[in-house]
Automatic annotation (TrEMBL):
Transmembrane segments: none annotated. Keywords: Signal. Gene3D superfamilies: Skp domain. PANTHER family: CHAPERONE PROTEIN SKP. PROSITE patterns: PROKAR_LIPOPROTEIN (PS51257). The keyword Translocase does not apply. Residues 172-191 are annotated as: Disordered. This is OmpH family outer membrane protein. Pfam families: OmpH (PF03938). Belongs to the Skp family. InterPro entries: Chaperone_Skp, Skp_dom_sf. It comes from Flavobacterium ardleyense.
């Protein structure tokens, strides 16, 4: 009786192993080079360019203040000997206070830009992840792995690399939405 149960158990485990082997062979997998995707995705490039312009615009008033401060500091050095020690001490304290204030403004601006940049990057990455998820479902993949800076795949055959396909569809999708966002140019008919 025990032998029969043992033989039945071994037979079932062999059958179970065979079924698992069959299932694992039918998985459809691929990987994406996430570094390349981010580098070549046109929306990332466009948003990065917009963010650089915004950063420069936000930094212009501070740059003007810093330049004015530097000019005033140069004038202070030239006038310090002529106007006396008491004036130099008073003016030096004022300049030091303004320098600290400019430093705080610069830090606040940098922090604001870092936060806005992080939010923008997170938003774009979420969009790309959602696109990849939809793409994977549409193409029938069981798994889509990522490689690049945050590598989750240490090795894969090149035939499983779908980076170019996903990048093409991502850029095509972005271009079509970009065209839809452009305002229509009206042309006047000649009478």
């Amino acid at each position: 009786m025990k032998k029969a149960i043992l033989i039945l158990g071994v037979a079932l485990s062999v059958l179970a192993c065979n079924k698992n082997d069959e299932k694992s062979e039918s998985f459809k997998t691929a990987y994406i080079n996430t570094s390349e995707l981010i580098e070549k995705y046109e929306k990332f490039k466009d948003e990065d360019d917009k963010f650089k312009v915004k950063s420069q615009e936000l930094g212009r008033p501070l740059e003007a203040k810093v330049k004015a401060f530097q000019n005033e500091a140069q004038g202070f050095q030239q006038n310090a000997q002529a106007k006396g020690q008491q004036w130099a001490q008073q003016k030096g304290a004022e300049l030091q206070q303004r320098e600290q204030q400019l430093g705080m403004e610069q830090n606040a601006l940098l922090q604001q830009l870092q936060q806005e940049g992080a939010v923008l990057k997170d938003t774009l990455i979420s969009e790309v992840k959602q696109f990849i998820k939809t793409y994977g479902k549409k193409k029938g993949y069981d798994y889509v792995y990522g490689t690049g800076d945050a590598a989750t795949v240490l090795y894969a055959k090149d035939q499983y690399d779908i980076t170019k396909d996903v990048l093409k569809e991502l850029n095509d999708s972005y271009k079509s939405t970009k065209k839809d966002d452009k305002p229509e140019v009206k042309t006047e008919e000649k009478k």
